Hints:
Layout: H1 4-13, H2 34-41, H3 61-73, H4 75-97, E1 101-112, E2 127-140, H5 146-212, H6 218-252, H7 281-286, H8 288-309, E3 314-325, E4 337-346, H9 352-420, H10 426-460
Antiparallel strand pairs: 1-2, 2-3, 3-4
Amino acid sequence: xxxxxxxxxxxxxxxxxxxxxxxxxxxxxxxxxxxxxxxxxxxxxxxxxxxxxxxxxxxxxxxxxxxxxxxxxxxxxxxxxxxxxxxxxxxxxxxxxxxxxxxxxxxxxxxxxxxxxxxxxxxxxxxxxxxxxxxxxxxxxxxxxxxxxxxxxxxxxxxxxxxxxxxxxxxxxxxxxxxxxxxxxxxxxxxxxxxxxxxxxxxxxxxxxxxxxxxxxxxxxxxxxxxxxxxxxxxxxxxxxxxxxxxxxxxxxxxxxxxxxxxxxxxxxxxxxxxxxxxxxxxxxxxxxxxxxxxxxxxxxxxxxxxxxxxxxxxxxxxxxxxxxxxxxxxxxxxxxxxxxxxxxxxxxxxxxxxxxxxxxxxxxxxxxxxxxxxxxxxxxxxxxxxxxxxxxxxxxxxxxxxxxxxxxxxxxxxxxxxxxxxxxxxxxxxxxxxxxxxxxxxxxxxxxxxxxxxxxxxxxxxxxxxxxx
Length: 470
């Protein structure tokens, strides 16, 4: 004990002084969008989503296959997997630093001593072979937890990389689903637009006949031709949009534009997964990109803790055992054994300025990580509230559109009945057909918007609409 007392006093006197000008750490913010989203979601139907992967809730096998293909061949996901492998090795290295360090050295040196040097002849001027084999062991006692903090920091970094990979997966799946429903909408409206163009062509032909017979003026015929011009422009625009969305969807699933024609026919006949009754704050915390930033905040805190531990003395225990001889034939004899054991005390007192600068850098990293996390929380809360507002708005629009569609269908039935009994001409029936097709185009657009809004909601809350377990 008396021998250790001077060592302990020396260690305490060798502590470096922590800086007094470190700024206060910023606080992590929490979103307050739960009440807003709960109010927006109040009129919506609610039911659990049984799908394991959120996109399976739409009940479309073709969409499931496209997303699976995209997740399998996506370059961004391959890069994320590579970063995760690097994080695994970094954590492994941090764990090895907390354990005993081993090293083995072996040297074989042929040397001739100078005759005019330190040793006189016959030693001077002779040649010999120096052989050394040593095994070195060292263990850092880690009194202040530096290595343990670095291990926790590495674990948090690995978790952050894993969450970032999940965020990439979520973004890819959402992009594929959004493109799929956008393409389904364009295809449906393109078919309806061509049907509408056909009705308007029939109307023009009838008006042309009436004009040739002198039954009508040129004005209705001019209006009919103008409708056809609008129809042609609409069909061309929708055809281009369809090809554009096919190219985009093809690229997302890892194919090229030449194979876009091999994509399955997109469909709007999907289930609408119901949103949750409320949005607990836990949802935003587990969103992959937000969770990754939270892990980076924790990693930055652990890095700062590890840096603070460097301000205090630490002790290494070292052991060396080996064989040393000038005669290679005697290497394995007991007399060639050499060994040493003892502590090594590290005193940081003379490195204070460097340590203070390093700690200041770590604290700045922590403040930057907190700022990024707080910003991500605000963005996530806004995106979730926006997505809920859009879902609620589209539900109301869909109900109104269904009523308008039903009214135009009743009008068409009446027009056909009147035509059959001779109370109306074919132009009235064609006009009623055109009105129904126009309403069906509006309905297709709204139904696709409802599906795309669900996709946006999935992405905003992290891809899971199940109520979190209490």
